[in-house]
Backbone:
């Protein structure tokens, strides 16, 4: 883990949290998610730190692209629903959805590649969808459980149909079911798969290949790809995040039970 500098906002290669490591592997940067104790769930500082890292790479002429990877057995499993926040700085929580890194990833002029080593869901899956190339380990699994937590994630509702088609998007979003790496490749959630031991090498090769392209022309093509995704209904998502279903969804998750909005006749035992 990186040195402990809690309470300090991002500056230089410091991303504002000890749970993100910004490493330089010239001409590339690696951003390493390092919170395996909590399955690499993201605190507000970590969400903001990923956004900062993308923008930091774009500002540095000596860096050609960014590879995002994770330590431990999981990739990124979404936000920290248990509120185990142990890295923060004053005022950060007041920014809400402005912390999120998704727009920075999809609009980055320089290429962003992700190496998905294990469970990938929530914000981790959204980052994977929006990266330029996503490479998944044979052990990786994918899930979008937001509706099971009472969250109307309209960002997913916007992006997924354009990525995998409406029928598969409905299946993934409405059921919250899990896909393995082979299914994710077949559906188009990721672009490539690799052996678990060869994942980092495969992701680094993908980033290298992206950087063979002419930078100005590549950025223009990336802007056209970004426009294809379109804009999401942010107001509806913000309303949902402040609503009673989100409160019940998070309470159910924390208490390891099914949400009470499920009819008793079909309500399963345990957490969804």
Residues:
């Amino acid at each position: 883990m990186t040195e402990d500098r809690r309470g300090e906002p991002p500056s230089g290669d410091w991303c504002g949290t000890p749970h993100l490591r910004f490493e330089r592997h010239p001409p590339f940067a690696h951003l390493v998610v390092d919170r395996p104790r909590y399955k690499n769930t993201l605190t507000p500082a970590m969400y903001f730190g990923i956004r900062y890292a993308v923008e930091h790479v774009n500002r540095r002429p000596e860096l050609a692209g960014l590879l995002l990877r994770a330590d431990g057995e999981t990739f990124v499993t979404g936000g920290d629903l248990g509120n185990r926040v142990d890295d923060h700085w004053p005022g950060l929580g007041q920014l809400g959805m402005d912390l999120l890194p998704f727009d920075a990833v999809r609009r980055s002029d320089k290429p962003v590649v992700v190496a998905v080593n294990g469970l990938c869901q929530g914000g981790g899956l959204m980052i994977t969808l929006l990266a330029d190339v996503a490479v998944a380990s044979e052990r990786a699994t994918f899930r979008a459980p937001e509706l099971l937590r009472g969250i109307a994630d309209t960002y997913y509702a916007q992006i997924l149909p354009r990525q995998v088609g409406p029928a598969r998007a409905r299946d993934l979003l409405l059921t919250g079911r899990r896909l393995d790496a082979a299914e994710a490749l077949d559906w188009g959630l990721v672009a490539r798969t690799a052996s678990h031991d060869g994942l980092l090498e495969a992701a680094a090769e993908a980033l290298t290949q992206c950087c063979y392209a002419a930078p100005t022309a590549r950025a223009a093509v990336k802007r056209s790809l970004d426009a294809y995704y379109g804009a999401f209904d942010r107001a509806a998502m913000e309303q949902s995040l402040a609503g009673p279903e989100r409160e019940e969804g998070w309470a159910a998750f924390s208490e390891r039970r099914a949400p009470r909005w499920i009819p008793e006749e079909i309500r399963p035992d345990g957490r969804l």
